[in-house]
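FIELD: query
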Amino acid sequence: MGFFAQRKPRGFQHQWIYVDERKEKLQKIEEKAKRDLGLLPPEETTHEERIRGAFVEQTKHLKRRKGKKPVSFAVLLVLLAVMLYVLYYLVTGRLTF
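FIELD: result
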């Protein structure tokens, strides 16, 4: 049974030893504030984001729906009621209840 139930090896997790997270966080806040005030140019997108964006632009199935809202619950209820009324008409042959 040991052949089929092999455990996966532990993944590599690198822990930084000499890092001041507070200092980095403060630097990011300062940079964001300067960008908001216009003292620094706007932040550029990373290379990975540009590549991903290029692929999304070229394929139709990866594009997100923009401006299209899903059908609401009320619309579905109205359509269900209309379909039930049509079914009632087909079964009984009368248009009134």
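FIELD: remark
The chain is about 50% helix and 0% strand.
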